[in-house]
Amino acid sequence: MPTFDLLVAGAGGGPSEANLSGYLLKAHDKAWSDGIIGLEAGSGLGALKRILKEKPDLLSETPAEPGPTASQLHSYIRTYLITHPHLDHILSLILLAGSLDGDRKSIRGSLQCLRGIDTIFKPGRVWPNLASWEPRDPDDLYLYDPLPEEEGVYTPLHGGLSVSMLPLNHGPVHPSSAFFLKHDASEREFLFFGDVEPDHLAAKALNLDVWRIAVPKIVEDKLDTIFIECSWPTGRRDSFLYGHLSPPHLIHELENLAKAVVAARLGVSAGAGVLTLTSGRRRASSNASPERKRLKSTEEFDIAQDLLGSLTGLRIYIIHCKEDMQEKYEGRPMHEVISEQVRALMEERGLGATILAVEQGDLIRA
Ligand SMILES: [Zn+2]
Ligand SMILES: [Zn+2]
């Protein structure tokens, strides 16, 4: 039984304006009309109109009942959750601001993210000022409502869901966010990454913090779905990543997750550096606590062997793949090319996670 429904209005990373990050989210046990969370707002109304024209039955519960239209879906949105204010993540929210319908919609994210969005609205030069920080203002203005950036704090959203936000690196001056989305009744969660760069290229390893928090949820079987970007294909030089991941970097991040999962299952601390890779062997570090020493004395094993299958049961959805402007891949969609590259590396490492390509128009049940 799935917990979440995500309608993919767009999953690309640009530059085409037709397919940009935008997901409509609800609890599986609720109706779309009960209230939708707009998870990112790159592609919106136009993309949804096209998707529902191509797949008219996508959202219908029974053959006799037509599902909601694109305009209705937009009127059901109660909250936008935005990872960072780059235009490819907020474009539809801005374009729709003059045509808001339904209850007042809030824009939620870090304070810095909301201030970034406000620079588009407030001076009134780029777009009329159609948002405010004041809860008493009328429904036709978006309400900025910052989320706490505090580990373990969940903020209730509409439709029986809540969110916890953590900061991410996305280039030196561009912070981004990760969201843990929780279904309150079942306590099941999924993890959604905004644009993110590899930890080892960043000044501070923020991805490790996200993994550390995800691990107990994975081990306790509360979280089995991760959406994470992989903007570039394999072969892209580090100096041209611009705050994004490519398949080898993503696999490296997932290996860090795998190590933390294995450590948690062994009952040792999952802190960075506890498990170190030495010439193909994994050992407990020498400055170990008694717990870690016990691990060292009784268990030493081959890293490849030990991490084998450690992420089995985890589904990794690859998002934000950038279009192939040089046409190196013979017109193949980049979400397929990049997912295939990640899948091959995942199989090579034997970590066991399932790698899935996300396509515009998908209805994902997680
Ligand atoms: Zn982006
Ligand atoms: Zn970005």
UniProtKB/TrEMBL annotation:
Pfam families: PDEase_II. InterPro entries: Pdiesterase2, RibonucZ/Hydroxyglut_hydro. GO terms for molecular function: 3',5'-cyclic-AMP phosphodiesterase activity; 3',5'-cyclic-GMP phosphodiesterase activity. This is 3',5'-cyclic-nucleotide phosphodiesterase. GO terms for biological process: cAMP catabolic process; negative regulation of glucose mediated signaling pathway.
